[in-house]
Amino acid sequence: MLLPAKVEAKEAKGYIVDFGFKDRTKGFLKAGDEQASIVGKRVYVVVKKVIAESKIIRCELLCKENRDDCV
Predict the structure, then answer these.
(1) pLDDT tens digits, 20-67
(2) Would you state the pLDDT for residue 25?
(3) Which helix (H) or strand (E) holds 46?
(4) For 20, left (φ over 0), alpha (ψ -120 to 50), or beta?
(5) CA-CA distance, 15 to 6, in Å (whole number)?
(6) Is residue 21 a part of any domain in this protein?
(7) Residue 60 lies in a domain
(8) Which of 25, 28, 42, 69 shows a CA-CA span of 20 to 30 A to 6?
């Protein structure tokens, strides 16, 4: 699944992203090879795993390598 999100903050091992859901579910984006800071920017992410009990969604940035997973 593909979702738009806003990168809220940088953590030790990645980024916290906000999807704008009413229940305040957040996403976690593992740190990668980003050249510039993505905090505050809108990005498209691919959902990898939903952890319902903690309201966290693990995701990856949309890129050429994983775009076929969305179709």
Answers:
(1) 888 888 999 888 766 568 889 898 888 888 887 878 888 888 776 656
(2) 86
(3) strand 42-51
(4) left
(5) 10
(6) yes
(7) yes
(8) 69
State whether residue 62 is helix, strand or coil. Answer: coil
Instruction: Classify residue 70: in a domain, yes or no.
Output: no
- Cα(50)–Cα(44) distance, integer angstroms: 16
Residue 25's domain is classified under what CATH number?
2.40.50.140
Label residue 8 by pLDDT band (50, 70, 90).
very high
Return the pLDDT at 1.
81
Smallest CA-to-CA distance from 55 within 32, 34, 37, 28 is with 28
Count the domains in the chain: 1
Residue 71 maps to a domain? no
Is the pLDDT higher at 37 or at 17? 17
